[in-house]
Automatic annotation (TrEMBL):
Entry GO MF terms: 5-carboxymethyl-2-hydroxymuconate delta-isomerase activity
Identification of the protein by name: 5-carboxymethyl-2-hydroxymuconate isomerase
InterPro entries assigned to the protein according to its UniProt record, in alphabetical order: 5-COMe_2-OHmuconate_Isoase, Tautomerase/MIF_sf
Keywords, sorted A to Z: Isomerase
The keyword Nucleotide-binding is annotated on this UniProt entry: no
Organism: Chryseobacterium indologenes
Domain of life, per lineage: Bacteria
Gene3D superfamilies for the chain: Macrophage Migration Inhibitory Factor
């Protein structure tokens, strides 16, 4: 946790490499101090087929999924910092946005949580 899924038009990865794009998101999330460095995950999904408004060519939207517990101000700062970093990388992109969504601790599950040896219900067990 957290997961940052970057949806973008396919032309975006012709302008900058996937690593350059993902590094901005990763390093910015890391710089906030909100997450353990080893927990941050970033994925990039370029789309060949999409439709935008008239005369609009490219887009980037980041879906951020984080464990609940951060306040609104922390999430807003995270959003602004990521968009600021990507704006520097892509000053001419038509659509550049992010949304941050919380995972509920009560309904979140991963492989560590179902391990029968994990008696403390530590979601990082054996990682």
């Amino acid at each position: 946790m957290p997961h940052f899924v970057i949806d973008c038009s396919q032309d975006i990865i012709r302008l900058k490499t996937p690593d350059e794009i993902m590094d901005v998101v990763y390093k910015t999330a890391e710089s906030t101090g909100l997450f353990a460095v080893n927990d941050i995950k970033v994925r990039l999904c370029p789309y060949q087929y999409y439709r935008l408004g008239e005369d609009k060519k490219n887009f980037i939207h980041i879906f951020g999924y984080i464990m609940e517990g951060r306040n609104t101000e922390q999430k807003a700062v995270l959003s602004r910092k990521i968009i600021t970093g990507l704006t520097e990388l892509f000053p001419d992109i038509s659509f550049l946005s992010i949304s941050i969504n919380d995972f509920e601790t009560a309904t979140y599950c991963n492989k560590s949580l179902v391990n029968p040896e994990n008696h403390d219900q530590n979601r990082h067990f054996e990682l």
